[in-house]
Amino acid sequence: MSWMQDAGLKTWVDQMGNLHGRTDTVNATAETLLIGSHLDTVVDAGKYDGSLGIICAISALKVLRIKGKLEKLYRPVEVIAFSDEEGVRFQSTFLGSAAIAGILPPTALQISDKSGITVQDVLRENSFEATDESLVWVKYNPKSVWGYVEVHIEQGPVLETLGYPLGVVKGIAGQTRLKVEVSGAQGHAGTVPMLMRQDSMAAAAELIVTLETLCKYPDKLFAYDEQCGFFEKESLAGLVCTVGEISCWPSASNVIPGQVNFTVDIRAIDDEARKSVVSEFSNQVYRKCEQRMVNCTIKHKHDAEAAHCDSELTLQLKHATSSALRKMPSDIHGDVPILMSGAGHDAMAMSHLTKQVGMLFVRCRGGISHSPEESVLDDDVWAAGLALLQFLDQHVNQ
Ligand code: HGY
Ligand code: MN
Ligand code: MN
Ligand code: MN
User: Quick one: which of 130, 89, 163 has its CA closest to 334?
Assistant: First the structure.
């Protein structure tokens, strides 16, 4: 907050724990330009995922203030540092930005973590009211918002491969998060004959490989489907799946596990393709578990539609980025790379509040992210700040 205040912004914290810093401009009633990213990280994270976007936003406004241009902005600009974008604890990502966009699931306050502690418990522990009414006040009126911009590390290898420091995002893959719970017959590792086992670990292993095969070779699955005909190859672009978390009970080397639970994260650029993979995977889960005589449940933890960034705001962002790149020491010419994002971002939630959503990607070494190895070049961050300043300049009375 103090950085925001230092940049001359009016600051507050909303009832979902999002931090806000807003300029006091002449026409305070004009539609607001929101700039932000998330405060939280994954476990064992890097230093830039989320935080880079917040610091870029605050720094750009601080430079405008130093240049005496803050007052000349013809629209209010507001920095938002979102809470709980990653969804690590509650498995339901974008809680902070979804509250602002007005798309929080009605049961959001009752979502619980592994130990049964709810979102409401945690908010109340931190002296928030945590009622449905208090969350209604977090929601922004779509008519009051001009657009949303997010600066973020690419978290992928494209910019580094192309040799560009910056890129503009044309879309963000949709994502589905599931929790698969497999329960079998717990037993003695030494006495139960193999053909009589109802082994939840072996079942889970088969399901995980099934998911991987489905996403590695989707055309086998979608080669031809009577109802919808051939799936265009590009609709399967960006199709990825991950099992990032698995737990087993009782987790002893000489016990056939009775219960194995694992998370599933499926993403694709095309929402229909993603939904088809989710339903095909679910069919195979139930079929294989029946064959193995184990029970299973599939819990839908989160669904986010793909977001498309193709508005006037993105055009302005491209223009600003291209002029920033020309000012770089390495004097990079040529079109600004336009790329898809496989990583999810608060911009997906914000695309439900405003059609004008744009993202500026910053190259990161080896495309590594969600790891302490995450790193960026100072010059690239400088270029991102310059691009954001050039973008903001288009919202300043000259
Ligand atoms: O999971 C994601 O894609 C993002 O980092 N929350
Ligand atoms: Mn992340
Ligand atoms: Mn992020
Ligand atoms: Mn984000």
Answer: 163
